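I would like you to help me understand the sequence and structure tokens below and explain how sequence relates to structure.
___
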Amino acid sequence: MELLDAILTVTKCERAEQLKNLSPERKTKLAHSLEERVPSGLATIEEWNEVLMYLADAPPESEKKVAKKKLLCILRGEEYKEENTESDRKKRRLFGQKR
């Protein structure tokens, strides 16, 4: 099942446009459902980024886990804090920075 289809099913929305108008409560419920029922690996990075850009007006990410976490935070109305991702670790090693 495509990620957007799963989200439409969970929210009981018929069209993607309806997702933009979800109440904060429904967004929080959606975040909980995605966290519990949809492992990061179930969808492609392109699918996670498509939903992240559409629902959260956020830029795409390079890793599925990061895209999912960012989406969940934004849906919950929480501040997203970047994790210590593999690409971040590589950059710090390359430039000799410590975290």
About this structure: The radius of gyration is 15 Å. Helices lie at 3-11, 24-37, 45-56, 64-76, 86-95.
